[in-house]
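Hi C.,

You asked whether I'd gotten around to modeling the 93-residue construct. I have! Everything is below, sequence then structure, no commentary in between.
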Amino acid sequence: MNCGACGYKGCKDLLAAGRREGEDFTGPHCIFQAIDLGIALGSAVKLAGELNIDNRIMYSVGAAAKRLGLLDSDLIIGIPLSVTGKSPFFDRP
């Protein structure tokens, strides 16, 4: 689309820039791919919630998984799940 939202003049420039290691993730990323990921994450946690599975989207879980080398990806977001009686994500003491 060559929108420039990524900070480059167009998609070719984004792809030619190559990957750069950031503090937690590797980038740059296309804004439309990031939006698509956000929509997919939102749909996943909504369905989990409808099934009474407590959950939360966590940036820090994804960053830790990347640092530990658990997944080979440029961007990782964690979704911890719980089916206990009391939610460990929302009802903290």
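If it helps when you're writing up: Residues 53 and 83 are 5 Å apart (CA to CA).

Thanks,
B.
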